[in-house]
């Protein structure tokens, strides 16, 4: 089993780092590639991540041709033949995001069977909003033996109000509605940049979606979609992770091709802390002096609030800032597991329901720790860079789901870090 070994203490990150295409954008984009019954779809800027391999296999399992040219970060999909109805359990069970194939398969075939999804263990993560929305579009849903089966004689546009702006449910419903008869209006829709990226691809494929990035989506159904070519948007969470890494090591780092507006909620908190954040022509520069940073209170929320996917990394930053910071996690329950691991390194924190108090500025020592989920794995590596001595981070399968060559990128910025087998 691979481990990351990081020696901390006096690390100061400096230089430039380049960001990949967004994991959370490419997964629904890959699901969308099964919608066109005519022409190939080509995705560029596809990150080389285990979740992408998994989603490629989910799509392949439907009898769709998928090729991944890793040298050029390009995926080509041909879904013009007959699609199978059933997404393979072997891959769906590995990744929660694979539930977003349910809407597209149903829209193409009128019948779909998908296993209840797996994924990170951060709370119960139900899929009721996906299913209620599909029912509103005219699907009959049954759940038997861990499988969800959806059937329809033809999806019909509907007005859907979502109790919570779920990212995955918005994507599933958007994709299903593109091939429904008539108009679908989704209110209280998710507004994440990855929703906008999906709408851009779907509209290139011939759909008619308006309002992406706002809380109301209007989708006028069409008969058929065709293949299209698209560049995956940059990964705001990978960019944010390097922004935090630079901030907590008193670094000076240019995060190339990071998009300012997409990271606005994070930037605002970094600035409140006292980190210098500057927009440059080719990215975002972070300059920081840890000794001068102030504690802050952060609350995770759906976009454009502070992203839950930056919560773990930001708590790592809070540990090096003198004084008491507060992190409130409102999107997922049970997303503070990384704090238990960080305690092994000397973190002083208290958790009361959705709120963690972090007493920053205490001495931190390297330790053997385990990743508990994808973003927690990055957070533990970051804290290893500032703790005295050596930290070893295990369970890297989580890291590989969402970060490409993370240790190499940190090493190029000056971290003393390596990945070993054993
Ligand atoms: C996506 C992201 C994930 C991110 C999350 C929130 C991808 C591949 N993953 O996940 O990295 O952490 O958005 O920004 O894009 N919920 C329900 N019922 C549902 C669906 C969701 O109650 O039917 C709840 C969830 O339990 C959770 C909250 O809504 O508490 C947010 O979930 P959602 O926005 O759906 O996240 P994902 O799409 O799974």
DSSP summary: helix tally: 14
Main sheet specs: 4 strands, mixed
Helix content: 25-40%
Number of strands: 23
Mean pLDDT: 95
Name the strands of the widest sheet in spatial order: 21-22-1-23
Structural shape: elongated
Strand content: 25-35%
Helix-strand makeup class: alpha+beta
Radius of gyration: 21 Å
- Unreliable residue stretches: none
Overall description:
The protein has helices at residues 23-32, 50-60, 89-92, 102-109, 128-136, 167-178, 193-204, 236-248, 264-273, 311-320, 337-343, 374-386, 397-402, 406-412; strands at 2-8, 14-18, 41-44, 65-69, 74-78, 111-115, 140-144, 147-151, 159-161, 183-187, 208-210, 216-220, 229-231, 252-256, 276-280, 283-287, 297-299, 323-328, 348-352, 355-360, 368-370, 389-394, 416-421. It is α+β, with helices and mostly antiparallel strands and 422 residues long. The strands form 6 sheets. Strands 21-22-1-23 form a 4-stranded mixed sheet, covered by helices on one side. Strands 2-14-16-15 form a 4-stranded mixed sheet. The longest helix has 13 residues, at 236-248. The mean pLDDT is 95. Bound molecules: uridine-diphosphate-N-acetylglucosamine. Uridine-diphosphate-N-acetylglucosamine is lined by residues 24, 27, 96-97, 123, 125-130, 164, 166-169, 194, 308-309, 331-332. Residues 24, 27, 96-97, 123, 125-130, 164, 166-169, 194, 308-309, 331-332 line the site of uridine-diphosphate-N-acetylglucosamine (UD1).
List keywords for this structure.
single chain, 14 helices, 23 strands, 31% helix, binds uridine-diphosphate-N-acetylglucosamine
């Amino acid at each position: 089993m691979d481990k990351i070994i990081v020696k901390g203490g006096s690390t100061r990150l400096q230089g430039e780092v380049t960001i990949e295409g967004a994991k959370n954008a490419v997964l629904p984009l890959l699901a969308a590639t099964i919608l066109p019954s005519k022409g190939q779809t080509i995705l560029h800027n596809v990150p080389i991540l285990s979740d992408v391999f998994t989603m490629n296999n989910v799509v392949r399992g439907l009898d769709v041709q998928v090729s991944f040219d890793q040298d050029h970060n390009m995926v080509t999909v041909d879904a013009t033949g007959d699609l199978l109805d059933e997404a393979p359990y072997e891959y769906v069970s590995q990744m929660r995001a694979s539930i977003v194939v349910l809407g597209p398969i149903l829209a193409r075939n009128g019948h779909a069977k998908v296993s209840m999804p797996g994924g990170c263990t951060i709370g119960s993560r139900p899929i009721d909003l996906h299913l209620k929305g599909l029912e509103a579009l005219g699907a009959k849903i049954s759940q038997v033996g861990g499988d969800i089966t959806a059937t329809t004689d033809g999806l019909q546009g509907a007005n859907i109000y979502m109790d919570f702006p779920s990212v995955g449910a918005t994507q599933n419903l958007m994709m299903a509605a593109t091939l429904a008869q008539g108009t679908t209006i989704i209110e209280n829709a998710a507004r994440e940049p990855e929703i906008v990226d999906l709408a851009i691809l779907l509209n290139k494929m011939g759909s008619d979606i308006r309002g992406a990035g706002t809380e109301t989506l209007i989708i006028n159904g069409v008969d058929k979609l065709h293949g299209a070519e698209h560049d995956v948007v940059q990964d705001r969470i990978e960019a944010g992770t390097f922004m935090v890494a630079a901030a907590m090591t008193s670094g000076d780092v240019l995060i190339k091709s990071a998009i300012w507006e997409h990271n606005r909620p994070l930037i605002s908190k970094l600035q409140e802390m006292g980190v210098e954040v500057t927009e440059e022509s080719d990215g975002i520069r972070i300059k920081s002096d840890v000794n001068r940073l102030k504690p802050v209170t952060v609350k995770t929320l759906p976009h454009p609030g502070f992203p839950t996917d930056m919560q773990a990394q930001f708590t790592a930053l809070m540990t090096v800032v003198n004084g008491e910071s507060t992190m409130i996690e409102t999107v997922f329950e049970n997303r503070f597991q990384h704090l238990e691991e960080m305690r092994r390194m000397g973190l002083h924190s208290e958790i009361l329901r959705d709120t963690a108090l972090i007493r920053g500025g205490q001495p931190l020592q390297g330790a053997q720790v385990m990743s508990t989920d994808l973003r927690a794995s990055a957070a533990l590596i970051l804290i290893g860079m500032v703790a005295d001595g050596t930290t070893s981070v295990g369970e890297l399968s989580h890291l590989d789901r969402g970060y490409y060559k993370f240790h190499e990128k940190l090493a190029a910025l000056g971290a003393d870090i390596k990945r070993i087998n054993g």
